[in-house]
Amino acid sequence: MVAKRHKYGRESRSSGFTLIEVMVVVVILSILAAIVVPKIMGKPDEARVTKVLSDIRSLSAALDLYRLDNFTYPTTDQGIEALVTAPGSLSSGARYQEGGYIDRMPKDPWGNAYNYLQPGTHGSFDIYSLGADNAPGGQGANADIGNWDAE
Fold this sequence. Notes:
Mean pLDDT: 84
Oligomer: single chain
Structural class: alpha+beta
Distance between the termini: 66 Å
Helix content: 25-40%
Strand order of the largest sheet: 3-4-5
Radius of gyration: 28 Å
Strand content: 5-15%
Number of strands: 5
Order of helices and strands: EEHHEEE
Low-confidence stretches: none
């Protein structure tokens, strides 16, 4: 290193990292990346399933509020869109909430609309995503995910 003389007569050294120090940091970062990256790379499908389950719980809660105000869940024909805009046919005495029950209808992580049945095959209603392949059935990322899984 080169010593420099300040105007007050003191010497100082230029500070910096040596090549060995930089190499040690690079090796440590490489080891950490080799351990962490493979564990993170397998998680996108799990994150998508988690998002679907979260959306389904939110939609189920909104449907319960809808039922409190309107005495029944929306029919399959009215669809889950009844949470955003009032359906054309409501029973007498129904009190549809101004502005709807959710701001906008979410899409599943694969960009598809959620499916809705009332009455459902698993309960009072079924809300479900058909998975990555957007077809009934399937395994892994292609499996159907519904409110029966969110309980």
